[in-house]
Amino acid sequence: MPQRSLVSLPAAAPGLASIAPSGRAVSGTWKRALAGGTAAIAVVVLAACGKQAPPPEPERYVRTLVLTPQSAGLQREFAAEVRARVESRLSFRVAGKILERRVDLGSVVKPGQTLARIDSSDLVLAQEAAKASVLAARVNRDQLGADYRRYIDLHRQGFISAAELDRRDAAFKAAQAQYESARAQSDVQRNQAQYSSLVADAPGVVTGIDAEPGMVVAAGTPVVRVANDGPRDVVFSVSEDQVALVRAAAARPDGLKVRLWADTKAEPQPIKLRELAAAADPVTRTFLVKAELNDQNVRLGQTATVILTGTPSDNAIKLPLSAVMESQGKSAVLLLDPKTMTVQPRPVTVVGAEGNELVVQGLTPGMEIVAAGGHVLTPGQKVKRFRPPGTPTEGSPSPAPAAAASR
């Protein structure tokens, strides 16, 4: 007689099928046992196919720096230029066509030296006309003077009245005034003829050429710019929010210093504020600042750097741009715990910038922070200090050049 089974066991549980009695109906107890075993197997299979735990983050090498115990005030640098204190824009005092220019850019000039010349033909003709007018006025005056003297004798003899003598006297005085006027006009025309030559009135150097031969210029049109020999100024521009800082720095000793770009090895020398513009430039919206330079041997036009040192502050520390990142919408740095070699974010407040460095508050000297590579790290991640080849192995970190905001 063929055997029958009331329950068909799954192929995934052959062991349970072997313990079921054959040829008889499986009781309720056996059904519950079979169902429980099947569920347990399913749980094991699903657990084996689930997501595995992520591996631990690898230890990354990072550059770190130790904050130095130097307190600081904000220090700012401005690009400046060395200029002469007096720079004249020389021009002709009369109109005319420029015939020649006798100096070039950079030429050294002396007092009385001719710089340029215009066509003086019309001026010479006007001078000759003025001379002729003087001659005519003098002849007229002399004639009326002789007549007046004769009329005086006639009046004494009683041949003319006193009124006639007074008319002759008035005519002579008018002729005398006309003569004086003609002579003054002649002097003016003589000066006008001399103004055809542009002459330097002080020693200096030519810093600009504004007109060339062949141009017809009006009186007062700039032709040559000459920087007079003498005191030198350092000229630079600042924005509106830095005007008060310039005044405050100028009030302190060594608050303003200058360093010439051509002399990189020399120490910055102090300068004295001489002039601060009262109004902003209409184009750049900056205020022009002029400071007195003590060194008179500096060449005109040299480029310099003006260093402005602000009020000292114990909480302001300078950090490289790569050390500051954003964490939860705020500026922060990664603080390194030397004991566990893990990093944690530390909020900071950015109060200024100096070149490629940021001035921040919220840190204390002696802290060790991640200087680069913080954007790829997570809070609590273990790191290792990066050591360039040839440096000592792992030990106490060497301070990096991250000083507080004053040098």
Automatic annotation (TrEMBL):
Cellular component annotations (GO), alphabetically ordered: efflux pump complex
InterPro entries: RND_pump_MFP
Stretches assigned to coiled coil: none
Disordered: annotated span: 380-407
Gene Ontology terms, MF aspect: efflux transmembrane transporter activity
Family: Belongs to the membrane fusion protein (MFP) (TC 8.A.1) family.
Protein name (Swiss-Prot/TrEMBL): Efflux transporter periplasmic adaptor subunit
Species of origin: Roseateles chitinivorans
